[in-house]
Amino acid sequence: MSYSFEELTEGLSASFEKVVTEQDVQTFAQVTGDTNPVHLDADYAATTSFEKPIAHGMLTAGFISAAIGTKLPGPGCIYLEQSLKFRAPVFIGATVTTTVTVKELNERRRRAVLETVCTVEGKKVVTGEATIMLP
């Protein structure tokens, strides 16, 4: 689905869901160069407070981009700004549900502010706010 600026209303929301796989974490590490062993080495991760490997926070945050670019408002929008708060770890095998909700609209500049929330089993793992521009 794709929304034009005129179709957006405050409170409108959409969600994107993704299971985090070990391959996702490995690929993200390869693409970004973030090879922190807390993500990639089970023996190392066992010595941390997490006790097992966790997904990169920015991998999880990337699901916000997917929700914005494919669901709300969808193709053609331009990401301008994103604030993030990492609230809890995401483990391999977790299903992350990302919800974006229109908070405010600026008709003159064709911009929207979106509340962005990633959850696992109803628990918030990443929260923030995005500003986007629509064509």
Characterise the protein shown here.
This protein is of the alpha+beta class. The protein has one domain: Hotdog Thioesterase (Thiol Ester Dehydrase, Chain A, Roll), CATH 3.10.129. It has helices at 22-32, 37-40, 42-45, 57-70; strands at residues 13-19, 78-86, 95-106, 111-120, 123-133. A 5-stranded antiparallel sheet has the order 1-3-4-5-2, covered by helices on one side. The longest helix has 14 residues, at 57-70. The model has no long low-confidence stretch (mean pLDDT 97).
H/E topology pattern: EHHHHEEEE
Q: Into how many domains do the coordinates divide?
A: 1
CATH topology term? Thiol Ester Dehydrase, Chain A
Q: Provide the structure class.
A: alpha+beta
Helix content: 10-25%
Provide the CATH superfamily: Hotdog Thioesterase
Summarize this entry quickly.
This protein has 4 helices and 5 strands. The protein has 135 residues and is of the alpha+beta class.
Note the topology:
Elements: E1 13-19, H1 22-32, H2 37-40, H3 42-45, H4 57-70, E2 78-86, E3 95-106, E4 111-120, E5 123-133
Antiparallel strand pairs: 1-3, 2-5, 3-4, 4-5
Protein name: 3-hydroxybutyryl-CoA dehydratase
GO cellular component, one term: fatty acid synthase complex
Pfam families: MaoC_dehydratas
Short key terms for the protein model shown above:
MaoC-like_dom, Thiol Ester Dehydrase, Chain A, alpha+beta, 135 residues, 4 helices, five-stranded antiparallel β-sheet
